[in-house]
Fold this sequence. Notes:
alpha/beta, Rossmann fold, eight-stranded mixed beta sheet, two-stranded antiparallel ribbon, 12 helices
Amino acid sequence: MLLISKTYWLGMPFNYKGALPEGTEVRPLHLQAADMRWITGLYYTPATAAKRRPIGVLVMHPRADFSRHYCIPRFVENGISVLGLTTRCLNNDVTAIHEDLILDVAAGVQYLREQGAEKVILVGNSGGGALFSFYQEQAEKAVGQRIATDPAGKPTKLNMATMIPADALIALSAHAGEGQVLLHCIDPAVTDESNPLASDPALDMYNPDNGFAPPPTSSQYSAEFIAAFRAGQRARVARLDAHARALIADARTAEESYKKTKNVLDFAERQAIGRHAAFEPVMTIYRTMANPNYTDLTQDPSARGYGSLFSERPDLMNYQFIGFGRLVTPAAWLSTWSGLSSNADFCRNIASTQIPVLIVNALRDKEIHPADARKMFAAVTSPDKTFLDQDAEHYFEPAFGEQTAPDVERLMTHVVPWVLERFS
């Protein structure tokens, strides 16, 4: 059953359309993070040294490949070099630990400085916004004051890493964090995590008895249902957090037992304990496409259409493989997808920094809604902060089948001057 949005039928909607400026130099990179992990990317520089400004842009996402991001051509055209860098979890966030991912960001920022960028601008689209705000918050802290353990209790490498603070952050259709997104779209009607079809009809937003209408007719939910639904979402995330922590504790107990039984038990007995200690469980999180904003367009009204970023039929897509946080280790769940435990929280982190911030809200975005963007902007404490609304989709992508992206062009007529006014 094909339910994926047409946005994704022609490939990655965040890739730039058309050609780069004539003479653009594109250098493939293989960078090593502080914990020895390798990451890849493309470094774009203007044609001649005379045209190059001492400004570097870094564009990244926790798992998507932004090495051909739509912002790149216009920056290069204006003399700004751009590094489109992947993280260690490219196209697979089963093991995505944000405390590790920001080491990848650190490698990118350091590379831009080494190439002569006196100012580094972080451009975070979608999940890149929370990734970068987390990086900046940690980079501004002195060594020894950064987060020592991730939400699973594992020591981080942040206090041994070179983390150079950036000079500005641009958040394009950015959300407050993958955990915050999931907190608003996880299905609270799930009654059994091992059975995706088991459901509580009283908390099912796709149940007509609760106000759901046949798509694409807008549904209409009562305030009482919404309140119960949102409380149910938090309760499910809390249960998943507890389950993740129990799995982690069990593994650590087995590992300690394995260490203590050295030279005590015979090989066969100790091997059985070792298997338990070595076991790495993976959590399957079913049904993560259930946000009343998808189907009731009176909830946080905007210019968006019916459905989610992924599908015009979220009621059915909710049961498919593609979805947020579908497969994760317990540690990755806590670090990335738990809205209650993750440190990658844009609002909390950006409040601790004072760099210039530009937040661009796409008015037709089906995943980030007006209240989300306003909350993020309100969290910025820097005196230099700018909010821009633009009539566009989540990735400023054109209509299906179009080969040019006029919304990107309009976006960059605001973004490039914002950068040059501050750093040229």
